[in-house]
Design a protein that fits this description.
291 residues, Chloramphenicol Acetyltransferase, 7-stranded mixed β-sheet, 8 helices, 33% helix
């Protein structure tokens, strides 16, 4: 009996694919294998038997049905595969946004004169873009076979937009080369076009990392799912007032929860902690990003 730990379904899949479990484990330097370790042709979790999910719900009470749009069905398959095949971990932190809120208030007149809505999200995009430049392994993708890390010499930020027809992720190109006003303009434009289903194929794909912002809705935190082939995703939830002690003096501080989910195949906990420490410092002191 092999000493390699693998589920019966993984062993059955290996047999069907002609993969030697022991040899594959030695190649990867692992003692535990899952279906994702059997090669690029390993089928996603949706191929598993889900017939027992087929329940006659009407037998228990009144129901109505609502068909999933084609767009939503594609998103569901991609999210299901990502969650099944990627070992994801979420690092939780929070950042002081006192200065950001102060700048938004101070620059409100200039924003109106420019015809731009200056949101906190623009600051987050700028901070994330700088952090990705500082930590190249986060600005990367893993090859389909899991053997090669592709490091990118560009920083594109995806912005998840909740629309009536499903979740869309248009992308801000070269975010690290753009100033606050330009980022604000592009965020507003992409969100509006996503809502109107006027986002072109050129506006989608190729992101370094995605931001999922629930701050306008609520929540204390969440676990966003990595959007492959990206290696991480940043979640943002509603700002809360937290009491910070300055010696013996309590001080109320607006803090925003930040949740970083990452692909543990390429990134480790210490990597995530260092990355988030840098990101939090930039959010707390945004003027250093504008120098």
């Amino acid at each position: 009996m092999s000493d390699i730990i693998a589920s019966p379904s993984t062993r059955r899949m290996a047999l069907q694919k002609g993969v030697d479990i022991d040899a594959r484990a030695r190649e990867l330097g692992r003692t535990t294998l899952g279906p994702e370790d059997l090669g690029t042709s390993a089928p996603p979790a949706q191929s598993a038997d889900t017939s027992y999910w087929d329940v006659d719900h009407a037998a228990y009470g009144p129901v109505t049905t609502e068909p999933m749009s084609r767009f939503a069905q594609v998103a569901a398959r991609n999210l299901g595969a990502a969650n099944a095949l990627i070992p994801q971990v979420t690092h939780h932190d929070r950042a002081d946004i006192s200065t950001i809120e102060g700048l938004r208030k101070a620059w409100r007149g200039e924003a109106q004169a420019r015809g731009v809505k200056l949101t906190a999200l623009a600051f987050h995009v700028m901070a994330l873009a700088r952090s990705l430049r500082d930590f190249p392994r986060f600005n990367a993708s893993l090859s389909a076979d899991g053997k090669t890390l592709v490091l990118k010499d560009y920083v594109h930020i995806g912005i998840a937009v909740d629309t009536p027809h499903g979740l869309m992720v248009p992308v801000i190109r070269d975010a690290d080369r753009k100033g606050l006003w330009q980022l604000s303009t592009e965020i507003t434009d992409l969100a509006a076009r996503a809502q109107a289903r006027k986002v072109s194929p050129d506006d989608m794909g190729g992101a370094s990392m995605t931001i999922s912002n629930l701050g306008g809705i609520g929540g204390l935190g969440f676990t966003p799912i990595v959007n492959p082939p990206e290696l991480a995703i940043l979640g943002i939830t509603r700002t809360e007032i937290v009491t910070i002690w300055d010696g013996d003096t309590p001080r109320p501080v607006p803090m925003v929860p930040l949740d970083l989910s990452y692909d543990h195949r390429a990134l480790n906990g210490a990597d995530a902690a260092r990355f988030m420490s840098r990101l939090v410092s930039l959010v707390a002191a945004p003027r250093q990003m504008m120098i």
